[in-house]
Design brief:
By secondary structure, the chain is α+β, with helices and mostly antiparallel strands. The protein is built from twelve helices and 43 strands. The strands form eleven sheets. It has an eight-stranded mixed beta sheet with strand order 35-36-38-37-39-40-41-42, sandwiched between helices. The N and C termini lie close together (12 Å).
Amino acid sequence: MQKALFISFLFMTTQIAAQRPIQKLQLPETRKETTQDVYFGKTVTDPYRWLEDDNSTETKAWVQIQNGATRHYLDQIRGLEDLKKELGQMWNYEKYSNPKKEGNLILFSKNDGLQNQSVVYMQQGLDGTPVELLNPNTMNSQGTSSIGSMSLSKSQMYCAYSISDAGSDWQDIYIMNVGTKEKLKEVIKYSKFSDISWKGDEGFYYSGYDQPKEKDKFSAKTEYQKIFFHKIGTAQSQDQLVYEDKANPLMYKGAALTEDEQWLMLSLSQGTDGSELQFWDLNDKNQKSFNLLSKGFSTNQEFVDNINGLFVVYTNLDAPNYRVVLMDPKTKGIEVLIPEKENKLDAVHRVGQKLFCSYLVNACSQIDVYDLNGKYESTIKLPGLGTVTGFNGGRRDKVAFYTYTSYNVAPTIYKYDLVSGKSELFQIKSTNNNQSKAQSTSDITSLAPSNTVVEQIWFTSKDGTKVPMFVYHRKDIDLKKGPHPVLLYGYGGFNISLTPSFSIPMSYFVQNGGVYVSVSLRGGSEFGEKWHKSGMLSQKQNVFDDFISAAEYLIANKITTPQKLAIHGRSNGGLLVGACMTQRPELFKVALPGVGVLDMLRYHKFTVGWGWAVEYGSSDNKKDFEYLFKYSPLHNVKKDMPYPATMITTADHDDRAVPAHSFKFAATLQENYKGENPMLIRIDTEAGHGAGKPTSKQIEEWGDVLGFTMHHLGMKVYKF
């Protein structure tokens, strides 16, 4: 079925661009206030601050007007409904998560194709028959309840899992008896950014907050996270407070028990960068609280495991490209286990008696295997330039699972034999019958179209830095014989790398003749901590310069033109798009800032925005204010500029980058731009920052985004 769909791309076409002109929107002006702030002697107006109150009657009415106008505009795009239908057909294939071994059980999630949420299954051993464990689709009729963290108790008697509603970061933790599938009475509320770590079958550790005020639950600053222990069979009010820090309300706190249950490890961070490790030896009756292992917060450090009384730690301490060290909890001494290399060490996992080290080689995965003494054994052979995730397991495991993906390869699961060192496709029995199915034969082949190619191109940024970008297109498209419609994507921040991964919407765009380009911007972790730091704080402009330079390269080399160039990014990537479209509006035809951080002077005043100050800086500081004000998208919209056709996307339950960012930016664009290009905002309901968004909502949103983009780029849409 899927293979036929891809083949049909090559033969049948209909126009989406050659249609009657779309009626220009006449949006009512958004009410302005005289609100002003003074930053270090400079007065800054904020006329749309009233939109920060997303619960007010006036804001809700504004949202209805904006959504109505956007819907009216989009519905005039001929072929939009066909596009969504075709996108849904592409979406309709079985998708599996990377399996996780818990004792004798193997857990994985599966989506039959168009289910709103994936269903969690369990099976006994490698050859067991999958049995449904958790189905979030049955939790509400809209499919907006999604599973966050999930963990089984030591003997697999209980399963604790967190549920988020409508995409919010707030989660409630429930407990199920695995054998009977009965849900226990107790519910843990007001948890956020929390793992679940079991102590035997007795109970578990988790991170939680005090009850928030309902009226500003999705916008108020989130403070005073604590560590609790919940004992099975008791109410949340009886949970033991394990750790709090009243002197530092703005801090993330997470605790996890080692597999042997001797050590309770505490990780603290003041934001999204820098951490501190503490430990509690539960076998030592004289130790009554946590002891410091490695002081924060100038470096990143992550506990991996404990071996013979020493802690295995993944860190960039004295190693910008990261390394693995052994830390002695008694002496605090440090011994290098796996030294720093030329390529960035991106992750370390222990399974059985092996350490799996994931390196980034020009923004692609390389997996090196070491023994527990730090001796290199082998490099796992991968299918091509792509991304590998997985390697979650226990000390006694003999196999490990990992997932490989690339721009033109859907996620494919492999089983790695720790004894032989060989990988093979993992066979999963059907959840409907007992026939085994290799999750990479017909389904995966159909989603790895042979008519496409992925290239990596290097260009020179404004300051002379060499920056790579991945270019994904059909083989029959000669990049040198442009101009071609291009969708340029980036993120560039928070030490997060953009590596090759499969995307149904991007595959749709490419199969329809577009060229998808993903840039490995500074601010990410593709090339270690130096790469990250060169795109943060006062050097954030480097990120925007890299993205703009990528666009200029594509134009200079005749791959595209400004009239055929769209830019897209989400969250911190939404900031990227907002900054670039306000700095160089003439360079782009379409701008798609998604769930963006767009008010750089007030971002830290909402929910967990305070945690980003280590990356961005804060307007409370004079030096930071000066550079933040220079690029803050909201504060750099000017009158009568040639802004690209813009569709901002956000959601009413986004309590990460609150929708006020997008509301105020949309109102400011609509006030100042009077040209022919539309300035739209699409506000999703019962949805959040992106995690857990139902399949139906994803298809609807991506259909609108692609339809808007392809219409303005003058593209054809292939029809099945």
